[in-house]
Design goal:
The protein is mostly beta strands. 0% of the residues lie in helices and 47% in strands. The protein has no helices and 7 strands. A 4-stranded antiparallel β-sheet has the order 4-5-6-7, with no helix packed on it. It has a 3-stranded antiparallel β-sheet with strand order 1-2-3, with no helix packed on it.
Length: 78
């Protein structure tokens, strides 16, 4: 998974180098992307100050925002 200054995160098939899906919704650079331990959720952080977004891995739907920090969140871990 990768994050980009275009505001997207991408999920890749590392064996063939093919993009399997794009997570769209951030409005600024995506700084951090991680997969949950069970492989069902993706978490992203961005410079757009939306804190942490939680996505469904299969559908790419943004499920929720994790809030509470008082400044930009720069990394997440699964």
């Amino acid at each position: 998974m990768t994050g980009s200054s275009d505001g997207t995160a991408r999920i890749w098939d590392l064996d063939v180098g093919e993009c399997l899906g794009t997570l769209e919704g951030h409005t600024d650079t995506v700084d951090s992307v991680t997969l949950s331990a069970d492989g069902r959720r993706v978490m992203t952080t961005s410079d757009d100050d939306t804190e942490v977004r939680v996505w469904d891995f299969e559908s790419g739907e943004c499920l929720r925002f994790l809030t509470g920090h008082t400044d930009t969140v720069q990394s997440v871990g699964g």
